[in-house]
Amino acid sequence: MRMLAVFRTPRRLNRSFAVSFLLFALLAIFGAFMALPLIYAVSNAFKPLDELFIFPPRFLVNNPTLDNFFDLFALMGNSWVPLSRYFANTLFITIAGTAGHILLASAAAYPLAKYRFWGSGTLFSIVILSLMFSGHVTAIPNYMVMSWLGWINTHASIIVPSLAFPLGLFLMKQFMEQIPDALLEAAKIDGANEYRIYWSIVMPNVKPAWLTLMILQFPALWGSDGGNFIYSENLKTLHYALGQISAGGIARAGVGAAVALLLMIVPIALFIITQSSVMQTMATSGMKE
Amino acid sequence: MQAEVNRHAASSLIQAKKPSRLAYVARELRKNKHYYLLMSPYMLIFFTFTVIPVVISLALSFFYFNMLEFPRFVGWQNYARLFLGDDVFMIALKNTFMFAVVTGPVSYIACFLFAWIINELSPKVRAAMTLVFYAPSISGNVFFIWLIVFSGDSYGYLNGFLMKFGFILEPIQWLSNEKYILAIIIIIQLWLSLGTSFLAFIAGLQTIDRTLIEAGAVDGIKNRWQELWFITLPSMRPQLMFGAVMQITGSLAVADISVALAGFPSVNYAGHTIVTHLMDFGTIRFEMGYASAIATVLFCMMIGANKLTQKLLRKVGE
Fold this sequence. Notes:
The complex is a heterodimer. Chain A starts with 16 loop residues before the first helix and ends in a 7-residue tail after the last helix. Chain A has helices at residues 17-45, 49-52, 67-78, 83-114, 120-131, 139-149, 156-162, 166-176, 181-189, 194-205, 207-222, 238-246, 253-282. Chain A contains 13 helices and no strands. The model of chain A is unreliable at 1-5 (pLDDT under 50). Chain B is an all-alpha fold. Chain B has 2 domains: 1-61, no CATH class; 77-314, MetI-like (MetI-like fold, Orthogonal Bundle), CATH 1.10.3720.10. Chain B has a two-stranded antiparallel sheet. In chain B, a hairpin with a 7-residue loop joins strand 1 (63-64) and strand 2. In chain B, helix 5 runs parallel beside helix 9 (178-192) and helix 5 packs parallel to helix 10. The N and C termini of chain B lie far apart (54 Å). The mean pLDDT of chain B is 82. The chains are: A mainly alpha, B mainly alpha. At the A-B interface, helix 1, helix 4, helix 5, helix 6 and helix 8 of A face helix 2, helix 3, helix 5, helix 6 and helix 7 of B. Chain B: Belongs to the binding-protein-dependent transport system permease family.
């Protein structure tokens, strides 16, 4: 087992080589199953048109080209609403939604993590319960609430609900419980009020949790197509615009592949950067019985 | 008799000292007003867009409501129609169960198994493998890549390869053939499903106390399977709970993939799920009461599945 550098060097107890080999073979096979479609998406984006429609189809690209990306920008430059508009919309939704979520979720998580007071247990149970159902359950009443608020066809209809995802509060609360009470006591003795403690003691200490909330929230908003709430063309998102291009069929196949790459590369890059923080937060993600 | 009187006196004393519940709440609210203030923005939004909609949905399921007329109370009629008179719902229910029974446990076990193997790798390789397994679930909607793989003409990758090697002579219409739709959606759902819970498992495994494992070896744990059952799994029970909640919710709410791959509605409802049924009545036929009844059934299924799983997980390592 030690001859392969990928294995961890310290000696582990109770290991047989045959089973290890079998398990790692399993990992390799399923790793390939997970990775191949993504590799294919990348290689597709660089294929010239004749390679995209070759028979039998070829997995990797032979003569990589950037034409698909140039075509994409040329195409979007000619369209009625410029690409930059969709991009700005998506960027606005993503940044406002993610930053707001981190701020509100951590503000709510701090009292729940550190203090017991009337209603705190009940409120947290409701949040836990709401982890257990998907947004589809509330899709219809949500639309009604939106229309009562007059938020149909505004970016608020996407941003505001996303500020209160239950998963963010849950992870933030679990992570904050690790902050030593002595630290908060010391701050209190030094005369800091609760808001001060939250802002200058708790928040800097939960940076890994921020980054985790970011990596969970970002892909959801980055990939949002406006759902049922946004109808104006100039308010729509990048994902929607690119979906329209992909719907162009064979003539747009190359551009569609470039689009797919653009959509997937951003969240993946973000995850690579934040990976270690995410792991740190997830280590506290236990649900107590 | 004396004791009786004393008890009366004592209890009236306690009564006098014990403030009424309302006063207690008011005092608590005053004392902790900073905490309530900190929580208020989140809770306001959370209640407006999550809790109240669920309550509305529960209530609406007893009404006939088409968004134009005033809701009309119909009692259990929506549920009766759902379970007794709706063949398509039965198909949706069956398909959803198929999804849940296959993708739920399989992806849950896969999440754990891969996390467990990955945990034995050196840190750099571990990071790379984590990325490989997690990437599909955050790469947005790239599952349309699978549309190209399962495309019905000879340019589809699966058809292309099968034809090249002579397994088939003519391309198969993968996504418009009832026989294949459900299986294909299940495969792609599995591909996407190693998400948050997978990360939680990897992280949970790394926090297990090494000395526990060494102590176990001294106490007679012979192989890695015993180590897994008696030490690893019980140590990360909280993460297992969390993962179960995430996986169950995900596998019961499959819809987007079905719609993207098999269309809406799919051929002969082969890829129809409870959520697509809900979308059908909610956004196309505008029968909000009926759609709410569907949502309520789904909601109960999710809660029930979660309670059951938590009960099962408590037995781990015993």
